[in-house]
Each structure stands twice: as C-alpha cells, then as structure tokens.
Amino acid sequence: LLFPLSFTVQRGGQQPPVPVRHASLLEHDSEAPDHQHVPNGVWVIVGLLNFIAYTLDGVDGKQARRTNSSTPLGELFDHGLDSWACVYFVVTVYSTFGRGSTGVSVFVLYLLLWVVLFSFILSHWEKYNTGILFLPWGYDISQVTISIVYIVTAIVGVEAWYAPFLFNFLYRDLFTTMIIACALTVTLPMSLYNFYKAYKNNTLKHHSVYEIMLPLVSPVLLFVLCTTWIFVSPMDILEVHPRLFYFMVGTAFANISCQLIVCQMSSTRCQPLNWMLLPIALVLSVVVSGFAPNSETLLLYLLTAFLTLAHIHYGVVVVSQLSRHFNIRPFSLKKPTPD
C-alpha cells in the first residue's frame, strides 16, 4: 500500500509552510502467506505528521502577517499545494479501510475524491466571483478526523475498521457519509450563501452566467474525460492501478486550481480550457480506438509522469516570476540584493 507521509518545512516567514510528502511503499495483503501488517509505528508517524502539517498550514498566514511579509505568492504556495494534497488525503484513508467486502470500492473512492476536489475548488470559484475567500470548517474537521483515524489504527489495528459498529453500519459507510455530508451541509451551502450575499449587495465581479461558471468548465471536463476512461477501459484500469489513476486526476486538477488561484489574485479572466485536458483526451482516444490495446498501463504511467513534470515546471516558473515581480525570495524574509 502507498502511504504518503506529510510534514511541513518553513524557512523564515516570507512564505507559508510548504508540505513535503514522502511515500513509503509498504505491502499489505491479508491473503499473503505471512499475513504481515503495516507496522503500528508507521500509522503513528502518519497521524502525527498529518496533524503537524495541518496545524502549520493554519498558522502560516499569522506568521506572514506578524512579519509583515504577506504576498500573493504566499497564497499561491498555500492553496496551490493544498489542491495537490487533496488526492493524498483521500487515498491514504482508503488504505486504512481497504477494498475488500468491508472496504471501499475503487470507483466509490474515485467519486469521493471528486467530492473532495470540487469542495476545494468551490471556495476558489467563490472568491473568483466575490473577491472574498471563505474557508469552511469541513476541511478542518476532515484533517482532525484523519489524524485520529491513523492513531487509532496504530492502537487497535486495521481489522477493527472491518467490523460493523452500529446496526451493521460499517466504518467505510461512516467515512463515505462524513465526506458527502461535509460537502453538502457545510461547503456547498456556505459558498452559495456567500455568492448570494455578493449578488444582493451588487458586489459580484462577474455578471453573466457564462463568466460566473467559467472556472468550473475545466474541472467538469476533467471529470468527464477520466470517468469515460474508467468505463471504456479494456483492462479496467481503475481496478488495476487505482492509486496511479487517482494521482493522475489529482495532478491535473491541481494545475487547474493553481491557474484559477493566479487568475483570482491578479483579477484576470479565467481561461475556459486547461491545456492538460488535451493529453488526457489524446490518451483516451487511443484507448477507445483500440490502437494500442496492450499499452494502456504504459500510457497511464507516461501520462501521469508527463502531467506531474509539467505541473512542477509550471509551479517553478510561476514562483520565479512572482518572486521577481515582488522583489522577494521564496522561503526567506531577506530581500534580493541588487546587482
């Protein structure tokens, strides 16, 4: 199983803490001869690091304001990296419950991943239209819950999550219900309410329906393309490579989110189509046409690697450009010395 471990590094006060994620490849198979489980210490470390990363993510803004070093680059670092971290939070919890008869199916988890992703981008869609970023409590609740789940797993073992806990209600059902409930009862209503307030106060930054919904075009198309791939895949790609597929989706989504964040910070118009949709559509067309029936796994690996490198390149370039524009250094309070 793939367990990304999270911790946060911060130098100075110029920028928010940057989440650094280390992946430990650990095999856990209940059907294996020795039936070896993930060491309890790993669960403890994951729980502590997740809580530390979440805590530092919450205080970075206070640190920047205390040192008078708040910049748009800090917001991009903070929320841009959070957009990429969404996929890790969902997949690591999936690793806790597994995918057996008492676990979560890979397709249900895929849909839950999209619930989390759309909950994230909804807040930035709201800021794009209202100019105000409201962060609901759903994210905070989920992070504390995830950390507790990891620590409890270290104490009672993964088998404890397989047994029903109330009226044959499984923990996987509780996990699913919590994610959907937070999205439908906290995130979505608050975003719509804040949008309505801006509309009533005549403070909306965009007024046509097309311009208002523009930031959601690329995420919706990404969902359509990836979901179509799942249904037409000759080798049932999601069942064979669930984590890789989730990571590919999360990486493309993170790039879409980062570009939206840049647009809302600079008060520029959001582009309707993200370029990363093109290679995904190209790979999907190859899969549908049957042109390379035995190369679907290779195509997924190549696509994921390409999107990852492209997203990292985008981040490096944008950070460099913003640093020069604001005459600052990333991860440092010291100003660049003039040549």
Automatic annotation (TrEMBL):
Pfam families: CDP-OH_P_transf
Keyword set, alphabetical order: Lipid biosynthesis, Lipid metabolism, Membrane, Phospholipid biosynthesis, Phospholipid metabolism, Transferase, Transmembrane, Transmembrane helix
Subcellular location: Membrane
GO biological process: phosphatidylethanolamine biosynthetic process
This protein's pathway: Phospholipid metabolism
Any single Gene Ontology cellular-component annotation: Golgi apparatus
InterPro entries, sorted: CDP-OH_P_trans, CDP-OH_PTrfase_TM_dom, CDP_ALCOHOL_P_TRANSF_CS, CHOPT
Transmembrane segments: 103-123, 174-196, 208-232, 244-263, 275-292, 298-319
PANTHER family in the record: ETHANOLAMINEPHOSPHOTRANSFERASE, ETHANOLAMINEPHOSPHOTRANSFERASE 1
Record-stated family: Belongs to the CDP-alcohol phosphatidyltransferase class-I family.
Name of this chain's protein: Selenoprotein I
Organism: Anas zonorhyncha (Eastern spot-billed duck)
